[in-house]
């Protein structure tokens, strides 16, 4: 007469966990439509048999018992073995048909109170759970309409609406058993769904944590474009005009011969961490670390325009040079006496950028003669020097003071390449410059006035006055 209120015949599986974790499947205890419908129609058959034996119903209604036992099997065949299985919302449609059958049954027994109420209760209970208020209202409409139509055909309701005691007891028990059984399965399914939801949430959190771990092996811009779906992970490249940056540490080879590998590794990682923070601050895409070298490019995956990309790259290089002086003083306080200087090269031009490698192992990088030029400029630079190509110079010259360094011959370029040395921001030149430096044995000062707060300024002035008084006292003593 009706279908189960909550059917999930297949198991519900949470999404696959990250690689290396166990895969769990949450099995939701199913109560198929076939079982639910068979239980409901068996309950109706029990009411009919009892009612006929107690002369509450007509003898011919025993044929309804046969129909009650046949219909669940027929409904199963129709919904699982025929074209109806592909019909959308087939469960709701079959439940509406059950309401029509239930209404016809209620009309046939002449609205005898308790059996009629029992059938209606089972139908409404199923409608509410399967389809909510909308299904309940629809089912109620069909139930009432079919009942009224059947009563009109059958000649009206029964003379006595009261059913015999045994018939009433069987009706109530059958309805109670059906409701309890279906409610039990609904509860089991709700618990299983909550467990599945918890597992899915846990796996989602694990996937997010894993993705953040994997992001350490990619530049943040590349990682973001992949995980947001902006870029596909496949072998593809494109030609773009980029700004390419190379740097390395002058004196690192000599230092590696003096230090233990563990201490050297710690120093190098500290250096890479500090420089990476500067690169990301200016929006650079960190390509790779090779030995003590860093390769960064600007203009992909995101670009602010050629001029701004070039300006960001050179600004990054200037800040790296300043930051290197601060780190060098810190290393000196840790006993590293070898002077470590950074040297940098920057070029601008068309390169091939994208995924290179194999289908199962890719590297997002760039190739082209401009990459070779930037590397060559870095190797030609003096300690603490930033060399740029002519095209880079033409993009930044209005805001950056540069010095002509002549021309060099580079493989892949037909003509000699003009190069320039970056001096500083034009705004920081002269007496109003924000960055001051002074370094001697036993003394080092690096001042960036733009980054100093009012409270820090008073502390620094006090420290400088104390240092000046001490130097004057020692000078007077000599």
List keywords for this structure.
478 residues, alpha+beta, 3 domains, two-stranded antiparallel ribbon, 12 helices, 12 strands, elongated, Adenylyl/Guanylyl_Cyclase_3/4, transmembrane helix, Adenylate cyclase
Characterization of the model:
Pfam families: Guanylate_cyc (PF00211), MASE2 (PF05230). Residues 243-378 form the Guanylate cyclase domain. The protein contains twelve helices and twelve strands. The longest helix has 51 residues, at 165-215. It has helices spanning 33-53, 63-81, 90-108, 113-154, 165-215, 220-227, 252-258, 261-281, 306-333, 369-380, 390-396, 454-477; strands at 12-13, 25-26, 237-250, 285-290, 293-298, 341-358, 361-367, 386-389, 400-408, 417-425, 435-440, 443-448. Helices cover 54% and strands 19% of the residues. The strands form three sheets. Strands 3, 4, 5, 6, 7, 8, 9 and 10 form an eight-stranded mixed sheet that branches. Strands 1-2 form a two-stranded antiparallel ribbon. It has 478 residues and is an alpha+beta fold. The chain folds into three domains: 12-209, no CATH class; 241-432, Nucleotide cyclase, GGDEF domain (Alpha-Beta Plaits, 2-Layer Sandwich), CATH 3.30.70; 434-478, no CATH class.
Helix-strand blueprint:
Layout: E1 12-13, E2 25-26, H1 33-53, H2 63-81, H3 90-108, H4 113-154, H5 165-215, H6 220-227, E3 237-250, H7 252-258, H8 261-281, E4 285-290, E5 293-298, H9 306-333, E6 341-358, E7 361-367, H10 369-380, E8 386-389, H11 390-396, E9 400-408, E10 417-425, E11 435-440, E12 443-448, H12 454-477
Parallel strand pairs: 6-8
Antiparallel strand pairs: 1-2, 3-5, 3-6, 4-5, 6-7, 8-10, 9-10, 11-12
Helix pairs in contact: 1-2, 1-5, 3-4, 4-5, 8-9
